[in-house]
Q: What sequence folds into this?
């Protein structure tokens, strides 16, 4: 019996045709072609987190619908690529749609730049690439001179990059659509992928530019405003019922209709919070699809680990997996399994670094104590509640409304709706007026990403080396009161995420907190730095020394609301002396001074007591 043959498993194929050309493993979602294109609404927007397969879906739509310019209305190309799929079983639908429509397909994922001017030029490049697909229309006998002149302008990327020619860019979709209608006698279908990326990037750069100028002052979202203005006109084609047959858009976030889609009729949005069962399984792997692919690659014994690490998303009535994670998990373990070398399953973090969460950074430092507790509840695997903003704008992020923060986490994939809790709440109130939802972190992979993201924000933003250096120098000089004020101020801005959640001693959390602070000191600032260091008759929490021979020894305690912070600090100070933590340094002639510190913490408050012993 020969060795079983397995289909190639492609990680992030560029498009549907590439997947099929390489005979890659394909989860058949073709039935959704009929679902989407028999929907009576003329404009559909699907929002899902990154890496859920939106682009593959859109290129599948394109491959099925697209007229063959060399042989119009011939379907031999589609017959090749869709052979064996479910959609070909529906002969009536295929006869009306397969290979029967001109299609305009464009992605805005590469529209970015630190300034609006740079982003505009990149936008022009993407539009010109799309226009290139229709260069053959310049030879058409059905287009007049004016039509061909406008199309020629779109093909000239240098012309299009000049802002004074922006009318051509913003009118490009209409120009191409009208030319295609004249050529084929059918209004085209527009497929616009990653429509919100330019807005997300613009909002992020506005925030970053404001920080560089003066972080304490409100800023004007000029870049974002300019991008919204540009996009409004660019998407004006959606309002014209005599230009397109249908438009399908994808993105991560639905922006408010009055911000971008003013005047667009017959407009439907399907998001992670929608209750329309016909679309919930369209983007991402359902539980059944994920289990089947694991079985097909003989890794179904590890279904529980995959579920714990990559499952947990709930889109209304379906349990969903992120395809990127499942495919990467199989690719990482399948070869070792085949060679008999799989001794321990590898559940890597594949989502980290792939998602776009730039806009989240603007909220750190603005969240309330209540938000901080919600942050901790999420890490402790609990659900939190908030007022969902489904129609938020990227420009409203500058308001730092905490409900927008949680809504953004939900739409970007860090959270998923807890439908059970939300449903209970709806039973108590009128569901039409109730906007409160419950959400949770979906799985172990996202929990790791979530925790690390907040910690990185803290290390990079809340405690720059100038602050860390100043704090350490104050401790070297015995300035306990100044050091206490510094730590207190940082605590007020820091998002509380205890490293080991509720079961770990709280001293561990504050110990890690101080280590995080001091890790931001300048390079070579310390000649020695020790954490949990064996010294004298025990283990000191933190000991550090500089090149001058000055030493600091710190012992950490925590206290409850009913306990005295000062009393606990005294206990900590006494422990240093009772356990002789300073003994090795007292006996060292090169040591010029030793300050010992007892520090007690309670929530976001601290007390520091100091004693000089050399």
A:
């Amino acid at each position: 019996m020969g060795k079983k043959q397995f289909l190639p498993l492609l990680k992030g194929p560029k498009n549907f045709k590439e997947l099929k050309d390489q005979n890659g493993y394909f989860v058949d979602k073709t039935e959704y072609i009929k679902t989407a294109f028999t929907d009576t609404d003329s404009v559909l927007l699907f929002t899902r987190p990154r890496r859920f397969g939106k682009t593959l879906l859109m290129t599948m739509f394109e491959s099925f619908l697209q007229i063959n310019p060399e042989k119009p209305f011939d379907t031999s190309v589609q017959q090749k690529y869709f052979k064996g799929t479910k959609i070909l079983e529906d002969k009536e639908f295929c006869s009306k749609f397969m290979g029967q429509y001109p299609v305009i397909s464009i992605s805005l994922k590469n529209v970015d730049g630190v300034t609006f001017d740079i982003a505009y030029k990149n936008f022009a490049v993407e539009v010109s690439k799309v226009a290139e697909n229709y260069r053959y229309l310049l030879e058409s006998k059905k287009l007049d001179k004016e039509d061909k002149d406008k199309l020629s302008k779109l093909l000239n990327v240098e012309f299009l990059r000049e802002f004074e020619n922006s009318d051509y860019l913003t009118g490009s979709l209409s120009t191409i659509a009208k030319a295609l209608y004249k050529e084929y006698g059918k209004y085209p279908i527009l497929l616009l992928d990653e429509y919100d990326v330019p807005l997300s990037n613009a909002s992020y750069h506005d925030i970053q530019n404001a920080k560089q100028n003066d972080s304490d002052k409100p800023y004007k979202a000029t870049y974002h405003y300019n991008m919204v203005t540009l996009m409004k006109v660019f998407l004006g084609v959606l309002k014209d019922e005599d230009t397109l047959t249908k438009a399908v858009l994808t993105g991560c976030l639905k922006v408010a209709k009055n911000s971008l889609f003013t005047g667009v009729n017959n407009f439907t949005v399907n998001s992670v919070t929608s209750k329309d069962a016909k679309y919930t399984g369209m983007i991402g792997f359902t539980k059944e699809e994920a289990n089947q692919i694991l079985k097909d690659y003989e890794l179904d014994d590890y279904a529980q680990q995959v579920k714990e690490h990559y499952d947990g998303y709930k889109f209304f009535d379906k349990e969903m997996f992120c395809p990127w994670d499942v495919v990467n998990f199989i690719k990482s373990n399948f070869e070792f399994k085949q060679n008999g070398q799989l001794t321990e399953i590898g559940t890597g973090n594949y989502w980290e670094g792939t998602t776009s969460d730039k806009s989240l950074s603007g909220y750190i430092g603005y969240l309330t104590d209540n938000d901080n507790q919600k942050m901790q509840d999420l890490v402790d695997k609990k659900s939190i509640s908030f007022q969902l903003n489904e129609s938020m704008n990227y420009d409203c992020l500058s308001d730092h409304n905490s409900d927008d923060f949680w809504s953004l986490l939900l739409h970007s994939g860090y959270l998923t709706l807890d439908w059970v809790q939300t449903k209970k709440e709806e039973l108590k109130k009128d569901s039409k007026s109730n906007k409160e939802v419950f959400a949770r972190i979906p799985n172990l992979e996202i929990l790791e990403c979530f925790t690390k993201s907040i910690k990185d924000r803290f290390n990079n933003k809340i405690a720059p080396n100038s602050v860390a250096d100043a704090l350490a120098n104050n401790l070297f000089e015995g300035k306990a009161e100044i050091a206490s004020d510094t730590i207190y101020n940082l605590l007020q801005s820091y998002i509380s995420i205890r490293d080991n959640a509720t079961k770990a001693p709280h001293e561990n959390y504050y110990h890690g907190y101080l280590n995080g602070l001091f890790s931001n000191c300048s390079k070579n600032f310390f000649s020695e730095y020790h954490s949990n260091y064996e010294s004298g008759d025990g283990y000191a929490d933190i000991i550090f020394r500089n090149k001058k021979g000055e030493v600091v020894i710190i012992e950490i305690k925590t206290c409850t609301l009913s306990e005295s912070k000062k009393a606990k600090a005294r206990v900590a100070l006494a422990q240093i002396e009772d356990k002789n933590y300073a003994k090795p340094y007292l006996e060292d002639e090169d040591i010029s001074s030793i300050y010992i510190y007892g520090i007690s913490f309670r929530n976001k408050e601290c007390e520091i007591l100091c004693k000089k012993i050399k």
Residues 214-219, 430-434, 497-504 have pLDDT under 50 and may be disordered. The longest helix spans residues 444-462.
